[in-house]
Design goal:
two-stranded antiparallel ribbon, alpha/beta, globular, 22% strand, Rossmann fold
């Protein structure tokens, strides 16, 4: 059985943050659903706040530094993605958008994605549909039907409302369906197309 990789990207700014809490809940739901489908899975969590300066450097230099490159590779090579951002001024955060801006153009082509967002008030919940979905449609990602928004009133410490819990479970199942149905992502081999020495000697390259 091949192991699938789930990348979890959180753009929360505080520690702890409701954005990270939601990202963890969504990831757990997807992992549980995948294992229920007899699919082994491992998660790779990316806290964008830890790479804010790396992302700014990438914007001005055009190249990822040694700290950021593995993060971009993790997301591009994942079989599925959970992406969660706080909502500022009725849209995704600048940190979240900067990360998307530095991804390779085809990094998420066909990748199943579960979108989540957090804000202080439920008035921002439409940002999932008018801001996040178009962004990931542009990247040719396959976004699951259920997006998950959590407002401040949905949390009671680290516990969540019944409605939010049900939505998380449904979204995790949708992501699991797409990941399980998709062929495992192949690790890029930089030497895969290099001809053998014997072929070079015989002029076959």
């Amino acid at each position: 059985m091949s192991t699938r990789t789930l990348a979890v990207v959180s753009a929360g700014l505080s520690v702890p943050s409701s954005t990270r809490l939601l990202a963890d809940r969504l990831a757990d739901a997807a992992v549980d659903a995948l294992r229920a489908r007899d699919v082994d899975v491992r998660t790779e969590v990316v806290e964008l706040r830890d790479h804010a300066r790396d992302l700014a450097d990438h914007l001005v230099t055009g190249f990822p530094n040694a700290s950021l490159r593995p993060v971009l590779d993790t997301v591009a090579g994942a079989d599925g993605l959970v992406a969660v951002t706080p909502i500022f001024s009725a849209s995704y955060s600048g940190l979240f958008k900067t990360f998307v801006d530095v991804l390779d153009r085809d990094a998420l082509d066909g990748t199943p994605v579960l979108l989540g967002a957090t804000a202080g008030t439920a008035r921002h919940q439409l940002a999932l549909d008018h801001a996040l979905r178009p962004l990931f449609a542009y990247l040719h990602a396959t976004v699951v039907p259920t997006g998950v928004f959590a407002a401040a009133e949905d949390w009671g410490g680290t516990s969540i409302s019944r409605e939010l819990g049900a939505r998380i479970t449904r979204a995790g199942g949708e992501l699991a369906d797409l990941v399980a149905a998709r062929a495992p992502a192949a690790a890029d081999d930089p030497f895969a197309d290099v001809p053998s020495f014997a072929a070079l000697l015989h002029g076959e390259a």
